[in-house]
Amino acid sequence: MTTLKNDLLLRALRGEKTERVPVWMMRQAGRYLPDFMKLKDKYSFFERCQRPELAAEITIQPVDQVGVDAAIIFSDILVVPQAMGMEVQMVEHRGPFLPAPIKRASDLEKLRVPDVAESLGYVFEALRLTKKNLDGRVPLIGFAGAPWTLLCYMVEGQGSKTFDQAKAFCYTQPETAHRLLQLITDTTIAYLKGQAAAGADVVQIFDSWGGLLGPDDFEVFSLYYIRQIVAALKEQALTIIFAKGAWYSLEEMAATGAHGLGIDWCIRPEIARQLAGPHVALQGNFDPAKLLSPIPVIRKEVRAMLDAFGEGPYIANLGHGILPNVPVDHARAFVETVKNYAYEPAR
Amino acid sequence: MTTLKNDLLLRALRGEKTERVPVWMMRQAGRYLPDFMKLKDKYSFFERCQRPELAAEITIQPVDQVGVDAAIIFSDILVVPQAMGMEVQMVEHRGPFLPAPIKRASDLEKLRVPDVAESLGYVFEALRLTKKNLDGRVPLIGFAGAPWTLLCYMVEGQGSKTFDQAKAFCYTQPETAHRLLQLITDTTIAYLKGQAAAGADVVQIFDSWGGLLGPDDFEVFSLYYIRQIVAALKEQALTIIFAKGAWYSLEEMAATGAHGLGIDWCIRPEIARQLAGPHVALQGNFDPAKLLSPIPVIRKEVRAMLDAFGEGPYIANLGHGILPNVPVDHARAFVETVKNYAYEPAR
């Protein structure tokens, strides 16, 4: 096993002091990088996910080109519904499309908790190859969608602003919804354990649509399942929960035992720290649209963010995925500003 | 001038005790009502807005059919950009489309602060007619979009999940953005004063996209302008600010002097009250998707909401607009449950 040359991310997640703040960006392996776009023109979305040498290459691009402190495996949260037996299409300019969404109890019969080694082995293969090619330069992050967010797509069949059909499904057929959520959870636990075994040092659970639920429903339809996942992964990997918009649950999310909590730009770091308590690492929370600002503005705003996060365990990141139209030198300015920052406590 | 037979809403907004909680629903005049759909089949969107007898009829439908404690004039926030000189189309199943959006400083030359009596007189006419036909049954609410939310559409040219182009416009051309926001603000002040003069007892400012901005940007690009509007309306009407998702600014919004603050379902009523302070009326915050639940569940959840809001000045409402596929008897169950509720302080 290779020793990591840069383990800032892991130490921050363990709550240890680090000589500087680690930094990476959600969706950093992707559409804003010209070298990614070249591969995108040649291979379909799922080809890029399923061919380990392509996924590994894409995963390492931002380490080489932008200088981030962690690699996150190139994949998609919808590989899980796919492995469970649903058809998932990626439609250009439109996003994911699931032609046969779940609408009633009988639709669950089409689903299975798959043998992940068989149906998602290509992700494990990509992780192993990436780990090897990284050669200990930075840690490797694996990920999965939170069960609630996957349910959103599996029921709605496509993206949505508000996922009302998914919510209505939960409100009118709660028993079926919970059966579905448990099937997804069981699959996700096996999947993330496999990722850890294949070399992921950290796994992040993306609950992109967690914030569409109010506090009570978030507990019932989302956190209940995330908690199972975090508990199951305890021995194998460090865990980060990113439930976009679910600021109201930071205290409860911290209590799951996750090592890190992602936050978006709609909560002040000071308040997030108050709610989450002193121990968990916070991760975020730069507004992705702000990376479109002129570079001097980016530098100033990144420093203000770092000041606001202060001294607790912290990982600099965006508050959501990087936008495809961000110039690479803007992304680099973000990363460099974090790397050059030295925290000076206010007197 | 007719005396109001039901002035619960006005008294709650003035912070007075009311014998029961007043209730209305955002977008209550609209798509979930079969009688509205009949008019929708016959007349185009802007025809319905611009013909006072149609707008008045649609406005009063939910008072007659669902029993709400206030009427809100049937119109759209985009009549303001239209009056300022922009073309606005309403495209079925797609939403608003502005074919010539604002992209740079020179585009502002196409815009004007209009004579509202001339360009928006049809709204005033609709308000006068509605007021007359209501005959004092319930108060009448007027409204406008917040300048930030209107900028979103005027720059992006259509709806969006994240309005990144609008945000990038603000971040890269802040001076032009502020000139545009001030033009919208000046128009909106004249427009809402006209609405008050035409009979609106209350005006609500809808900042549907306020919550896409973080706390600092919300202050700079949104609240700075809302504050001007609230101050200008002070003598003429009671004011409500509804900035969806902008929970982090409740304290600052309360400090504007607005009489009411709308909140969505992603914040617990107790926390909203803590942040907003004891005096301002809170309005909300039932998850609109929850109206798709079975009626007994709706009744139970509405009572839980009313319990949570407790004794402070309060107006029951949804946390966002009613969904088009809500059965009318579900909307009625919402309203009736509020009307039949008697607050019992916990011992």
What's the layout of helices and strands?
2 copies of one chain form a homodimer.
Chain A: H1 8-13, H2 34-42, H3 45-50, H4 52-65, E1 71-72, H5 79-83, E2 89-91, E3 95-97, H6 116-119, H7 121-134, E4 140-145, H8 147-156, H9 164-172, H10 174-197, E5 202-207, H11 215-233, E6 238-243, H12 250-254, E7 260-262, H13 269-276, E8 281-286, H14 295-309, E9 314-318, H15 328-339
Parallel strand pairs in A: 1-4, 4-5, 5-6, 6-7, 7-8, 8-9
Antiparallel strand pairs in A: 2-3
Helix pairs in contact in A: 4-7, 8-9, 8-10, 9-10, 10-11, 14-15
Give me some keywords for this one.
9 strands, homodimer, 347 residues, seven-stranded parallel sheet, globular, TIM Barrel
Overall average pLDDT of chain A:
96
- Oligomerization status of the protein chains: homodimer
- The number of helical runs of chain A is 15
What structural class results from the helix and strand content of chain A? alpha/beta
Order of helices and strands of chain A: HHHHEHEEHHEHHHEHEHEHEHEH
What percent of residues of chain A are in strands? 5-15%
Spatial order of the strands forming the largest sheet of chain A: 1-4-5-6-7-8-9
Question: What spatial form of chain A do the alpha-carbon principal axes imply?
Answer: globular
Q: How many strands, which pairing sense, and closed or not: the largest β-sheet of chain A?
A: 7 strands, parallel
Low-confidence stretches of chain A: none
- Terminal CA distance of chain A reads 44 Å
Most extensive chain-chain interface: A-B, 33 and 32 residues
Assigned CATH architecture of chain A: Alpha-Beta Barrel
Overall domain count of chain A: 1
CATH topology of chain A: TIM Barrel
- Tell me the helix content of chain A: 40-55%
Which CATH class of chain A applies here? Alpha Beta
